DNA sequence: CGTTCCCGCCACCCG
DNA sequence: CGGGTGGCGGGAACG
């Protein structure tokens, strides 16, 4: 033990502090707090307690890293001032500063999102623990969930290999598949239904039966999901019977990938995760523990930017929940597509892969959503950060030598993986995601034609070396801020939906009103931010990016690739997934049957909508984009396939009976869905579009774009604006003046109203609009709609308070309202 | 007070 | 049998 302390603090309990502080992490802490120092009654008490407690021994008083300090400063900038002498608030290491999330951030900062296989991406738990000044135990928590995502893998005891996000795509696909096989969607439905019934004190006995049919049934207790190329972990060391965290984490993720609104409440998650193991036993403590674990997992997933916390509000108050913010996951596809896509794919991404270097160097590898051009001014920051990271990595603390064998594994794997991954990223894995949609359109505006699009040159900041990156259509801002950003943000500020979806009917109106906007048919299942409890079918629906050659000339379609919904065949999913367990095959038939059965009882969703981008964008050239996605998805089955518009809850049975029109446009009286975030995003889009289109050479690095990007990427907290004269600031949600409520009855009236509303909104996009801080989004939604048939409608209303509400269906059970709000 | 979740005891399990 | 793992839940910090 080398109790070498920089600060002469008399930490009696200070156990181990590594003298050799990492070069990167600025060790010196502003002010050191002496635990024994009696300046706060609380502290005294604490001391006494700790002293009295039998386990005083390893009471570590670790200081926080500069990062934390920074965050703290941000959090309470005002408090810093010299108020009443010295003693400020509490002790430095506030609980938050020790949070797992923060720790995870620090951890992730040490490794690149896309490490080059060449580098020795080894993780020594001990070292990390020391450098981060935390108990090893905490590192396990992080590593375990990372492992569940195959971002790391265990090599030997105390040693892990870092893979970064290279495998993420595949992993998520696999998880999604397994999730589907497990019929998590149905299970979720079950639980929700049960809750609902409980409210009315309905006989809960009946439920048991249902439970049996669903959740408990086929205890497909799947264990750890492995990746094809990944399993070969040091077999020797990897015997531990993976129980909880790892598996739990995977299941948790599955829930997101499988559920349509991609929002999962802790409660539901916990119940499902418990229910799997044992038949429903409302064990209080067990539940509680599960929740606690989920928080742990959620924290690191949050750090990975895969999810973010939101709140779901029902009649019974609001419950914590999480929303998937990670990449949209494509249904697993055979390898066939590889060639097809690779040819169509813009060279940049697919090529560079050859040289991992570039990949890893690209701090903003193209990722699912958040396809925003990296603002040049960010480059600097990014670079320095990366630099730091490099230092850390090369720090003497991690001198581990690579064994030939392991090295092999490491390098070999990525090589194969990358191409596929790259392609996915390119394609944009979320065909369904609205955000994807929008971002892509934005991207297209800016990037699809590099020549046309001027490269923003930040005043004084020019990074020629980065040019290539910018030129690449794919060199867009990924959400991978986690690895980049030194700043810790509370939550990803910006939401996810950037598009406005309109029903065709409304579309007309809108177009009329403001000709400058274009309507773009868009299949957006989960975009709306609405919660669709029974989107079971949805899960099987795959949006197909389209009709390749969809025209570029037709204004209505030119903007983005046309997308279609196609049902995904179970067969495809089945056959694609290679699960270690062979039992699967045996159950295949059974599952089919089950699936069919369940289909009958569940509701179906037919999503759709329109994206309303600026016309200018159309000028651009997105031809390439729209084309390349052609035939990505192999729709070998089309049970319910058909491009459909509108979000329409329909029961399977109804579906059969009603005979859904191919163009289900009229099925939905209306379905305009505005999410607060969309409002915020829109300005950006418009701005960028304007820049690129209006003036073919608009060097103006719009600050709003920067701000938005920063916020979105998490470099700065929401609400914070980067100094720059705001040309187009976020349009406050409140820009929507009136409440809009649509019902099937008074459609025409409502319609008008809506259009008006939209018009207002669109108008508000103009530069003159005053900026306002983003507000938490609130989505109200009805659950458990009754089988209302085609008449069911969705409606949206914007409250004067700036929050929006989206509710669907007038025939839903009113009590089943649900709100999702981001903090 | 409810939510979030840190801390670290201690059971496992693997050399 | 020692040490790495990590399940687990009390209870403190936070809001």
Give your account of this protein's structure:
With 823 residues, the chain is an alpha+beta fold. The chain has a domain at 100-197 and 241-324: Winged helix-like DNA-binding domain superfamily/Winged helix DNA-binding domain (Arc Repressor Mutant, subunit A). The protein is built from 30 helices and 18 strands. It has a 5-stranded antiparallel sheet. A 3-stranded antiparallel sheet has the order 1-3-2. Strands 7-8 form a two-stranded antiparallel ribbon. A hairpin with a 2-residue loop joins strand 5 and strand 6 (317-324). The structure holds a DNA duplex (15 and 15 nucleotides). Residues 1-40, 389-409, 448-469, 766-823 are annotated as: Disordered. One of its GO terms (cellular component) is RNA polymerase II transcription regulator complex. This is Transcription factor E2F8.
Secondary structure elements and pairings:
Layout: H1 41-52, H2 66-75, H3 100-109, E1 122-124, H4 125-132, H5 136-148, E2 152-156, E3 159-162, H6 168-181, H7 184-199, H8 205-216, H9 244-258, E4 263-265, H10 266-277, H11 284-303, E5 307-314, E6 317-324, H12 337-344, H13 347-350, H14 356-361, E7 372-373, H15 376-394, H16 404-427, H17 434-448, H18 467-471, E8 476-477, H19 481-484, H20 504-513, E9 520-522, H21 536-540, E10 541-545, H22 555-558, E11 563-567, H23 570-576, H24 583-601, E12 603-606, E13 609-611, H25 615-619, H26 623-628, E14 648-651, H27 652-658, H28 676-694, H29 703-713, H30 747-764, E15 778-782, E16 794-798, E17 804-808, E18 817-822
Antiparallel strand pairs: 1-3, 2-3, 4-6, 5-6, 5-18, 7-8, 9-13, 10-11, 12-14, 15-18, 16-17
The protein binds a DNA duplex (15 and 15 nucleotides) through residues 46, 55, 58, 90, 94-96, 98-100, 125, 135-138, 140-141, 144, 157-158, 236-237, 239-241, 243-245, 285, 288-289, 291-293, 295-296, 299, 320.
